[in-house]
Amino acid sequence: MKYQYRLENGRTVDAKVGNVLIEGKLSPSTAEVDRLIGQLSDYTRYGNRLNVVIYGYFNREARRRIEDVIHSHYINKVFLTYINNPRRNRSEYAR
Length: 95
Description:
The protein is α/β, with parallel strands linked by helices.
């Protein structure tokens, strides 16, 4: 496993295991969800799979948006995991 793995385009993904990239988000705000949707396009060029892991609070609308993008553009390439009770939390949830 390599943490903070730098891609050829200069962007950094949270981790890489074999040919699988991992991007984690802690209680993402709307702006962070927008950024993540943009990252999907970049990251899927550099790995066979991308696992997106969301920790903590996750707004239903944000989840729906991410799932819609995955199902319409990245089926069998991007996978979403949600962990609702992480050991680390933000002091305020972005809503």
